[in-house]
Amino acid sequence: RIRQPPRSTLNLTLFPYTTLFRSPHLDGKVAIYSSLDPDHFDLNNPVAIEDISKGRADLVIKGSLNRRYFLLKFNNDAATVVGVRSQKFPSVANFRDIGGYTNSDHRSVKWRKLYRSGCLDSIDGTCAKRVANMHIQTLIDLRSDAKPLPDGVEIPNYFVLPISTAIKDPMPLIMQHCFKRGDALIYMQDINREMPLSSKESLKEMFRILGDPKSYPVIVSCRFGSIQASLAVALILTALEVPEQTIVDDYLLSNRYLNIRTIASQGAELPLEFQDAITTMYLSDERYIRAAFHELNRRYGSVDQYLQRELGVDEAYKKRLQQLLLE
């Protein structure tokens, strides 16, 4: 876990990474290396060496902290790369890297390959330059009302692959004071059950794109980088054999990176109980994504069987995707 406060100090919590090496307890030293490129570290110049038992390291890094990565080398042997997951883009909601997650084979998702985010409709000049510096090759927009990319955003491949359902938008009912928080909880579970079933063609095309090495780096986006993007990323991580609880944990990170107050402001004139319904729809609740998993398990026997039978994600494809996205 890395916290990125202002200025040039980083607090790096070490203890979660000791469990990556199948040991509940690890003594000795951890050497920490810093880089702007997760594939290249200067192993001659660690930024810190700490006792593993200390459990944390306070680092002072010169220069910009943007997109810093850290190689943690335990006892000069086992190593892992960690990074600051979220990009702070004022005009783009919930932009974050999917790198660093560990799968069931103890392989990690590569950094700087796959991102999830809110829509890029309002991206400004500064943010557009930062995105340009990331050399994004493909944007997959999962909205049914997707718009053309704004001026200044140059992404070679732009695909609109709507993920939607036949379930009606509840906003008119909210505005009529006929839809409360309990209704929103049921609604969100219903649409998560329905989306993978009603949007199979879009999801199948998404995986086709992800199977092409020339597609990367890729952004998967929707309005706020939460509802549709969460489902898509959950299915991608499943294909990479990332544990379900890790997928749920990634899903819940939207609550940290979304400004829910701004989203709920669209109902600012409503009584609080109906503003609460809006907030409930855009918060990430574990029950929502698990509703999707449960429905696929019920219909297909497993999420993996759904991927194979409906989206063409068979063992050969999974192997190819894992070669592209795992290290």
At a glance:
About 40% of the residues lie in helices and about 15% in strands.
Give me the side-by-side strand order of the main sheet.
8-9-12-10-11
Rounded mean pLDDT is 87
Strand content: 15-25%
Report the count of strand segments. 12
Major beta sheet summary: 5 strands, mixed
User: Uncertain spans, ≥5 residues at pLDDT below 50?
Assistant: 1-9, 15-24
Radius of gyration: 21 Å
Order of helices and strands: EEHEEEEEEEHEEHHHEHHHHHHHH
What is the topology?
Blueprint: E1 2-3, E2 9-13, H1 15-18, E3 29-35, E4 48-51, E5 56-60, E6 69-74, E7 78-83, E8 96-97, E9 114-117, H2 125-133, E10 138-141, E11 157-160, H3 171-175, H4 181-198, H5 200-210, E12 218-221, H6 227-239, H7 244-252, H8 254-257, H9 260-264, H10 272-282, H11 286-300, H12 303-311, H13 315-325
Parallel strand pairs: 9-12, 10-11, 10-12
Antiparallel strand pairs: 1-2, 2-5, 3-4, 3-6, 6-7, 8-9
Helix pairs in contact: 4-10, 4-11, 6-7, 11-12
